[in-house]
Amino acid sequence: MSGQAETATARPRLSRRSLTLNIGLFLVGMHVTVALLTLVWTPYDPTGMTGGRLEAPSWAHWAGTDRLGRDLFTQIMIGSRIALIVGFGAVAIAATIGVTLGVLSAFATRYLDDILAAAFDILIAFPTLLLAMLVVAATESASLFSATLALGIAISAIVARLTRILAKRILSMDYITAARTAGASWPSIVFRHLLPNIWPMLAVNFALQFGLAVIAEASLSYLGLGAPPPNASWGRLLQEAQGTVYTAPFGAIAPGIALVTLVIGMNLLADGLREAGDPTRRGRQ
């Protein structure tokens, strides 16, 4: 009877975890679908003046028009593509730099490990947006590439610190000692034992950093340091709508909703992946 009760109690918990993961997949998948669709079709020309200025949402313009008469829904669709490019690009750069430095730190001598750990902590202490602004300023030109590079470098310290912690934990395991005693090379230990065991936790962190990168890119674009016109970044749309937020509020509401749904979707996806990949957490629940 007790086993049946535990099973009955576990089912709702499993369904809640599945719901979190499924909602996250749906929200992120929706944006991915829209971004891919913009490669072949958009309702209107993103730069074309297809209506009157600041028109309200209608059947012709689902999200209304901006102050130049451009279709807002088309620009928001393009914004999904830009957000995903920056998000995935920044995470890829952060993963390449961060995982490499984190693994090197875990294998380094104590003196070098302490120096790298202190450097990671110092970089993490700076706000991600501030570091990204410094990198963009150093490139002397605001572009989609510079924003992606800046965010990737800014986030890499977070990834490096987590990789170092996870790698040092794995390297202290008995099977790693046995592999080293058997004559396994360091590259073999890294690629056969270390990375496969830390990858699940890194994947969850990458999903969280993706959301951070999307918000930071919107902030950079709002400040004029992100993708320049005619790229329809959500941050730039919000910046352009601030002067008409009282007379045409949907110009700010629509890109804000798009930004929030993508970030929440990625956070829910990360939470679902963590729940699904953590056996100790499942056991407690």
From TrEMBL:
InterPro entries: BP-dependent_transpt_permease, MetI-like, MetI-like_sf. Residues 80-270 form the ABC transmembrane type-1 domain. Keywords: Cell membrane, Membrane, Transmembrane, Transmembrane helix, Transport. Its main location: membrane. It is found in: Cell membrane. The chain crosses the membrane at residues 21-44, 82-108, 115-138, 144-163, 202-225, 245-269. It is a multi-pass membrane protein. Pfam families: BPD_transp_1. Belongs to the binding-protein-dependent transport system permease family. This is ABC transporter permease.
